[in-house]
Amino acid sequence: MYTLYLGNKNYSSWSLRGWLAAKQSGAPFTEVMVALSGESQPNSANRAFSPTGRVPCLHDGENVVWDSLAIAEYLAERHRGMWSGDPVARAWARSVCAEMHSGFSSLRNEMPMCIRERVDVRPWSPGLQDDVARVIEIWNEGRRRFGQGGSHLCGAFSVADAFYAPVAFRFRTYGVVPDGAAGAFLEALLAHPFLREWEDAALKETAIIEADEPRLIYRERLAAKGKSSQ
User: Fold this and answer.
1) Is the N or the C terminus of the chain less surrounded, counting Cβ atoms within 10 Å?
2) What is the pTM of this model?
3) DSSP for residue 43
4) What pLDDT is stored for residue 229 in this prediction?
């Protein structure tokens, strides 16, 4: 049985990706929860289970796989159906996963994942506007080119959806409502049983990480909005 080390479910977007890949594999796994600190440097004690001290981290016997994309690929090599069976769709899906994995810094920094929250932090920075527009472009392209036969990016739920699942939670938190196919995909992704299960667990958490709390990060902007609406 696999063991998967995860961070707080309300905040940890990378943990969500690794967890969704494990769920999609259909294999049994044990969760080990690791409290996040909100600090940029990981707790050195976490190196007992991960070479980087970060989550997620998958243990398969003596094999240790860290990093969410590596975990997804490791599981996909051992369990069928995690990527699209069509080679063109699969190449596209791998590309957009890699793009999410390495990019979208404004989206990560300015819209931290906080599942329980609902806030409007407009106006967005130019970088954030570009990141949001690019995500919507990807979602529309996936649905147009590969979405037949299902409601997800490549039809059936796949690793590609797992990698954009934290963005779905972010969009809901910060009031991003795409039109057309991207909007329908957002609704379908948030309604998926795996995301509902993760969300239910996240809402039961009581830990507060101030560095990831939108109402603390944007306290001045939200206060100004409140005054202007009176």
Assistant:
1) C
2) 0.95
3) P
4) 52
